[in-house]
Amino acid sequence: MTVPSGAPPAPDAVGWFLAVDSGGSGLRVVVGEVGGGRRSGPLSSGEPVRTGARGIDAGHFMEQLVPMVRALTEKAEVSEVSEVGTAVIGAAGLATLGDGLRAELPGALAREFGVRTVALAADAVIAYVGALGARPGAAVAGGTGLIAIGTDLAGWRRADGWGHLLGDCGGGAWIGRAGLEAALRAYDGRDGGSVALLSCAEGQFGAMSGLPGRLYPRSDRAAVLASFAPRVAECAPDDPVAAGILRAAARHIAESAGAVCPTGGEPHIALTGGLFKMGEALLTPLHEELAKRLPWARPVAAEGDPLDGAVRIARDLAAGDLVLPCDDVMLSVVGPGEPKGTR
């Protein structure tokens, strides 16, 4: 947004912004200068925000955030915390567990830091913007879970992201669970088993007879399942069962991407997240599936991570240049910087 000569700046076009990525490993936070290039390094909490009867716990969120912001603003030589006028909060679970956060967080940020404009974004949205920026396309965010998100800049579409019990098909927990099933099939002598995966599973988890008791009671079982996914990738070059698991994962991922990718023009498509660091055993069949299902889309490398996406949204929002679609679930804005005509 260009400010006419002699006119006062827009409310949030000066000062500092706050950008947050809240996920399964805790908060990652940066502060940055709206009108310049200065930006702090990220500060991490290492503790996930609790969930309760109202979903994501806004009180616990603020307990962690306040000392982190004060430490960052002091280091960045921000004279007053109240100079932080714009905040973008990207949070895992916001779409389904975010009612309490939406109701309480804007007021809490205003009271604590004087924040005037707050954007609350699903973690998939900041992952998308970090990977592709504000342009039409689709992004697949893969780690322990998996979700695909796409936009034509008129609205958002999402596919999967339903958790390891109901979905996240092709994600780390899905691959790890399939690998352990193949190991147990070999242990039992059933068809479809893999001796190579059985050996890996016994090396990582011990005797297979005790695996259910060690896995089922754990609250972090999705992460435990995902921890076996790299073993599947290691076995894939020489083991047809492991290779078949990764081909199936690739089909699932491409299905989710196809469900959200815009069909007009030449949308970009990017992969982001730790899942795609597993190497060619997954990437080769995945690129083949994407080319088959989405021949009109242009594959590109992700430009940045979810925290980079939160920073991009914050800069655009503070400048009045946000063009991303807003709704009550995926991305909502409260305050004078709220975009017009995007709902």
Q: Helices and strands, in N-to-C order? A: EEEEEHEHHEHEEEHHHHHHEHEHE
Q: Pairing-aware structural class of the strands and helices? A: alpha/beta
Beta-strand residue fraction: 15-25%
Average predicted local confidence, pLDDT: 87
- Biggest sheet architecture: 6 strands, mixed
What is the CA-atom radius of gyration, in angstroms?
A: 22 Å
Tertiary shape: globular
Portion of residues within helices: 40-55%
Amino- and carboxy-terminal Cα gap: 20 Å
- Quantity of strands, as a count: 13
Low-confidence stretches: 1-13
Largest sheet, spatial ordering of strands = 3-2-1-6-7-13
Number of distinct helices: 12
Tell me about this structure.
The protein is built from twelve helices and 13 strands. It is α/β, with parallel strands linked by helices. The protein has a six-stranded mixed beta sheet with strand order 3-2-1-6-7-13, with helices on both faces. Strands 10-9-8-11-12 form a five-stranded mixed beta sheet, with helices on both faces. Strand 11 (268-272), helix 11 and strand 12 form a beta-alpha-beta unit. Helix 1 (58-75) packs parallel to helix 3 (99-113), helix 4 (123-132) packs across helix 12 (306-319) and helix 10 crosses helix 11 (280-293). The longest helix has 21 residues, at 240-260. The protein is globular. Mean pLDDT is 87; it is low at 1-13.
